[in-house]
Amino acid sequence: MDAHGLVRKTFADMRKLGYIARMAFSCCRNCASYELVGVVKEKQALGAVFYSTQSKDDMRNCGDVYVCFGSYSGEDNADISVGYDLTRVALENGLQVEWNGTSIEAVRLVSPNKEIERE
Asked: Pick from 12, 35, 38, 45: CA 20 to 30 A from residue 74's CA?
């Protein structure tokens, strides 16, 4: 399975856990976050994970994508829990992951065939 397929599976698995998971959603991070607040509350989801249409080409061309996430509960620890769930599911599906463990930075999902440059 290619990287895009692994990301699709990761998003499907996040939905099974109770998250809203949207690929190539909305024009940018800010607009997507604004739109998802109501959806998360309406569906009583644990939170949301998404990447915007701006990131779609990165996934197809480069084999990686930055996935934004949040609980939209206003609690930083709840947001971080979403990031940890996303990281765990992505790793289980065979993707590489880069994330600093905070709610400020998006989680980078990387193709298993791509070498990650470390600073």
From this structure: 12
